[in-house]
Every structure is written in C-alpha cells, then in structure tokens.
Amino acid sequence: MPLIDSSLFVLLFWAVAAYLIGSVPFGMVLTRAMNLGDLRSIGSGNIGATNVLRTGSKKAAALTLILDGGKGAVAVLLARLFAGEDAAQIAALAAMLGHCYPVWLGFKGGKGVATFLGVLLALAWPVGLACCLAWLIAMAVTRTSSIGGLASAAASTFFMIFLGYGSALFLGILLTLLVFWRHRENIKRIRAGTEPKIGAKKD
C-alpha cells in the first residue's frame, strides 16, 4: 500500500526530488555520449529534442524526447506512490521547473513540451494522450515544433474539463502558462511569420 502523507515536509521533499529529476539534461547527456558536439553551440542552443534533431541524429532526438517525457512521468508516479495525489501534482510542476530551469546549467533549460506531456500522461493519462494527439496534429499540419507544443498546452485545460479531471485544472493552467512563457520568443516569430520549420537551423 502507498504511504499517504501530505505533511509540508513530505510535500517539500517531493518538490525537491522532482525538480532534481526534471533537471537532468538528457539532450546534452546524449549528444555528448554519442559524440554529436556541444548542443549549446548547435541551432538554437536549446537542450530539447527539436534542437537535438539538428545534430543530424534522429535516434538522439527520439531518445531525448522519450527521456524528457519519461523523467516528468517518473517524478509524478513516484510522488503519487509514496505520498499521494497532492505530492504528485506538486512533483509535476517541480519537474517542469527542473527541466526549464535546471540548476546544473545555470537555470537555462528547455522549453518543456516533452516533460509537460510526460507529467500529463502520469497525472491523467486520457488528458495526456489527447494532448499528445493535439501536439502531433499541430506539428504535422504546420511542420513547426513550437506550434505543436503551444497547441498541446493550450488544449490541455479544455481536455481536463471535458475528460473530468477538474481537480488538476489549476495545475494544468500553471503548466500551460509555463510552456507559453518558455515559448515567448517563438510566439513573437510565429506572429512575424519567421518561425523556422522542423529541421531548420534555429528554433
């Protein structure tokens, strides 16, 4: 049986643990391990899967996508198992913050889309699957990574309400705002019509 404890200390513990899990920069780890160069000097310099793809390695990009999503899911599932639903929601936000602002990289991390989808799949898998579908459709139609991420984030609030996960609605709004904040420069380029397509040199 899971040990359910929502005390402040336990919640703080899982917030810190989830942040550290989320802050693991898998994109940089994989590109260095596979001798693909310094990810910070490639393309946009971002640590996410889209920029890893610019190294020319689809394998590294796919692994980065899976691992960035997986770390968010793992953080949520562990927190839920040992401390309950409140801790799981706190872990979701902390893992996202860890990815976007990792202590190991001077708080300069990724845009958070893969981790966002991972935490949603762990928190409420129907919502997570719906957001993944929205992400895939938007990217297929526009061939623009940022639009895919923004579309999935924007749709998440609707999916939470429609699919009956209102208890996570406030968290969903916070995560959506974080994704939009991390994409603020992309949004400017989208509005200007200068946002690169998938595979271009800059994100």
Automatic annotation (TrEMBL):
Pathway: Lipid metabolism; phospholipid metabolism. The keyword DNA-binding does not apply. InterPro entries: G3P_acylTferase_PlsY. GO terms for molecular function: acyl-phosphate glycerol-3-phosphate acyltransferase activity. Its EC number is 2.3.1.275. It catalyses: an acyl phosphate + sn-glycerol 3-phosphate = a 1-acyl-sn-glycero-3-phosphate + phosphate. One of its GO terms (biological process) is phospholipid biosynthetic process. It comes from the Bacteria. Keywords: Acyltransferase, Cell membrane, Lipid biosynthesis, Lipid metabolism, Membrane, Phospholipid biosynthesis, Phospholipid metabolism, Transferase, Transmembrane, Transmembrane helix. It is found in: Cell membrane. It is a multi-pass membrane protein. Probably interacts with PlsX. This is Glycerol-3-phosphate acyltransferase. It comes from Sulfitobacter pontiacus. The gene is plsY.
